[in-house]
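Do me a favour: review this protein, sequence plus structure tokens, and tell me how the chain folds. Record follows.
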Amino acid sequence: MNCRFCNTPLSQVFLDLGTAPPSNSFLKPNDLNAPETYYPLKLFVCPDCFLVQVDEVKRSAEIFSSEYVYFSSFSSTWLAHAKAYVEATLPRLGLGPGSLVIEIASNDGYLLQYVRQAGVPALGVEPTASTAKAAREKGVETLEEFFGVALAERLAAEGRQADLIIGNNVLAHVPDINDFVGGLRTALKPGGLVNMEFPHLYRLVESVQFDTVYHEHFSYLSLSTVRRIFSAQGLRVFDVEELPTHGGSLRIHARRQDDPKAQDTERLNAVLHMEQAAGMLGPGYYLGFQERVERIKAELLGFLAEQTLARKKVAAYGAAAKGNTLLNFCGVKAGQVALVCDASPHKQGLFLPGSRIPVLHPDAIATERPDFVLILPWNIKDEIMAQLSFIRQWGGRFVTPIPSPEIH
């Protein structure tokens, strides 16, 4: 296997989670008597550019199928994040009716709906049929395609280059990162801005966020590596914001390299210095992560075994992809976690891949009265704990698994 950015041969394993089914390949009741397909889930680190990456063992077209079940609009925290970004960014850039905003991986129109409400033309690019349909129902024009140079050239030929290109949690999802970033430059109008958000590899390592590893995430990104990837395609990352989303993310600001506005900021240099000081530009930083992950597995299984022996009921909340990585790596089954609740009707009535735990409506928490609720999307734990605070009435408690199992 060679690095998907610089083509350097890879040999250093960063993390090996064994094998697992794709995290968003939920099962229907009729699927329970059929086998599931498991794929290796192993990360390597490039010794040259330090891109952490998974081998592409499942094609992206199979992952983002018509039955894809992740809809962004079912998290109030994420909607608020998107709305705040739009309300701050459009006026700052002076965008109006004559501008164009393109969002790549626009999902169900969770963000572009606010762009349209502001009177700014918006175009979504979303390869998944189910979420693209939901976006169109919100009035968001959506191209049901994968983004890359070919699509960007077509848009440019149509006179549809963007003043602002947005990509939230998509940069890690693309198998050909060079083609994707090259497409960004082509689709960007001269003088335009690119904003990309992605989980910061530094936070993943420091907080042992191994459950954010799954087959949809081909790359795990530092600012240093992203800046190098963008530079190779004629874009300059000149600014960055550190965000609390997804356990710690970065929002980069990039322009064409010849744009005079692309001047490095102090906060960009601060994050680059932080990564260098931490050792992220050397192979030693990526050693020993496996052992820290194995400890969390042992602690979580110990907690679940203790509750089984005490005849306590454990439920989970949030049928998130990260939760499926956690449960499958730890080997948790329905006997240890009785059920998982999720607000998305697209997941209710299905079963988690691998663990085969049933996904129910959130009302089941009040009906089943579990002793513990394991919060799988720990990155929005405050939102979930507020929604389910009523479990305290019968002595119920919350559990978060990352960075180590903790009872609240």
In short: The first helix runs from residue 60 to 63. The longest strand covers residues 188-199.
